[in-house]
Amino acid sequence: MIYLDNASTTWPKPPAVMEAMTRYLTEVGVSPGRGIYAASVEAERSVVDTRRRLAKLFDAPDHDRIVICLNCTDALNMAIKGTLREGDHVVTTTIEHNSVARPLQAMVDSGFITQTKVKADSLGLLDPADFLAAMSSKTRLVICSHASNVLGTIQPVSQIGQLVRERDAVFLVDAAQTAGVLPIAMEREFIDLLAFPGHKSLLGPPGIGGLCVGERANIRPWREGGTGGDSSTPIQPEQFPFLLEAGTPNTVGIVGLGAALAVIDPPATLQHERSLLTQLIDSLADESAIEIQGPPLASARVGALSLTVEGYGPEEVAAILDESYDIAVRGGLHCAPDMHRTINTYPEGTVRVSPCYASKPQEMTKLTHALKEIVA
Predict the structure, then answer these.
(1) Measured between alpha carbons, how far is 268 from 262 in angstroms, rounded to an integer?
(2) Burial of residue 363, with CB atoms counted within 10 A of its CB: 0-12 exposed, 13-18 middle, 19 or more buried
């Protein structure tokens, strides 16, 4: 199989990830921080090491404020529901994934908050000035994806973050498509809350993600329970990460993510993925029946590209590529309906192609040939 759906989940994982997870399950296997015996201490050491690696990657000042979550969706829900208060106003955008759009819409429908959506242009790019115009005295939270999961378009988060900081609001960035490929510096980019998945470009296993919580963020716990440390207080401990972490963690996933963080090479990965997208864009330039959506240059994207094929629905194209060519791509709305409304591909969506560090130029050549045969 030629796998080109890495914007959903990267595959294959580096061998070091499986090796570390297998070792944990076969030689350690206990909960971290739940005892003073050697195995529990080793498990806790692995968790702390992963937090430290993440803090270094994201230029976060305190590794204890790296909260381990189930996934990026969990992190976004934790950030949104832990930050907002009744009567607050939120500024969000039309490029957001349903992991942002749905929690907000539910809060709007209940009358708990109000929201304003900043609209992207036809290339999926947001204008920082539009955020300033959308904010009011009641704006507590501004939310923006670092890059569109549909088009791959990279957003000017540092400029947006500076405007948000000047208005004394909290800035939440969804790094689902950028963590592990783009440089992220929370302090320099004025990011107060950073949500990320472990299973995409960070190359960790499914079922792991996190939320980096800056000093300015006043966030309440979204779930309460055991922390393995302070068991005497009747409420959740105030210190991080225990304020937002409750229950037995996914230690095997954390260990796998830690191993992945030791081997990822974000600059090389970004360069490689852009090279493959450039190859695809150039090879399809003479096909009038195939329309590339979003920025014309791969340099404005992370490793995701959407296209449409005249006369075929996106899911139909994806099915043909799978059944006839053994090529796996994603067809549909990609959990971002507002983005498709913006680029006029709603309700059918697009065919999304997303290579990874392991993808090869010859695989893009085979995809090009397959698409041209479909058109023919």
Answers:
(1) 14
(2) middle
Closest Cα partner for 156 from 166, 144, 168? Answer: 144
Question: Residues 6 or more apart from 102 whose CB is under 8 A from it?
Answer: none
Whole-model pTM: value is 0.96
Burial of 321 per CB tally in 10 Å (0-12, 13-18, 19+) = buried
Can you tell me the distance from the alpha carbon of 222 to that of 232, in angstroms, rounded to the nearest whole number?
20
Residue 65 tokens, joined: 């404020």
- Gap between the Cα atoms of 314 and 307, Å rounded: 8
Neighbours of 96 (CB within 10 A): 26
First CA to last CA distance, the chain = 23
| Continuous segment of H or E residues that includes residue 269 | helix 266-283
Helix then strand count (H, E) for the chain reads: 11, 13
Taking only the tens of pLDDT, the chain with its 376 residues reads 999 999 999 999 999 999 999 999 999 999 897 778 999 999 999 999 999 999 999 999 899 999 999 999 999 999 999 999 999 999 999 999 999 999 999 999 999 999 999 999 999 999 999 999 999 999 999 999 999 999 999 999 999 999 999 999 999 999 999 999 999 999 999 999 999 999 999 999 999 999 999 999 999 998 888 776 667 788 888 889 988 998 889 999 999 999 999 999 999 999 999 999 999 999 999 999 999 999 999 999 999 999 999 999 999 999 999 999 999 999 999 999 999 999 999 999 999 999 999 999 999 999 999 999 999 9
- DSSP for 111-169? TS-EEEEEPP-TTSPPPHHHHHHH--TTEEEEEEESB-TTT-BBP-HHHHHHHHHHTT-
CA atoms within 13 A on the CB side of 297: 4
Say which residue the tokens 């225990």 belong to. 242
Q: Which residues pair with residue 3 across a beta bridge? A: 328
Half-sphere exposure in the Cβ direction for 145 (13 Å, CA): 34
Contact 181, 333 (CB under 8 A): no
Query: Which residue has 């989940």 as its token pair?
Result: 9
How many Cα atoms occupy the beta-carbon half-sphere of 243 within 13 Å?
A: 17
